[in-house]
Specification:
The protein is built from three helices and four strands; from the N terminus they run ββαββαα. With 86 residues, it is α+β, with helices and mostly antiparallel strands. It has one domain. A hairpin with a 2-residue loop joins β3 and β4. α2 packs antiparallel against α3. The longest helix has 29 residues. It starts with a strand and ends with a helix.
């Protein structure tokens, strides 16, 4: 697999991944800037689908962390909305 840079900022260049077709990955991609260049990176939903399909222990731990982040974000949003209503 081709890579750019060195740890801890290394970027892996992947041409295919488990659980997500290229068309789906492209549709859900997010534009980001890396070294002054615009690139496309895998979107959150596609990343989770890929990690579920891979099923490695680290991928499953990553999914749990992403889901916890979602739960915390929803909780924070709900509390902020409740404060505005007061």
């Amino acid at each position: 697999m081709p890579t750019l840079g060195r740890e801890p900022l290394r970027v892996d260049i992947m041409t295919s991944i488990s659980g997500v077709a290229f068309r789906e990955a492209w549709r859900g991609s997010i534009e980001a800037t890396l070294g002054g260049h615009m690139i496309h990176v895998l979107g959150r939903n596609e990343l989770i689908r890929n990690k579920k399909a891979s099923g490695r222990p680290q991928d499953l731990a990553d999914i749990a962390l992403l889901e916890e982040m979602d739960r915390l974000a929803r909780s924070t949003t709900t509390r902020a909305a409740a404060k505005r209503r007061r």
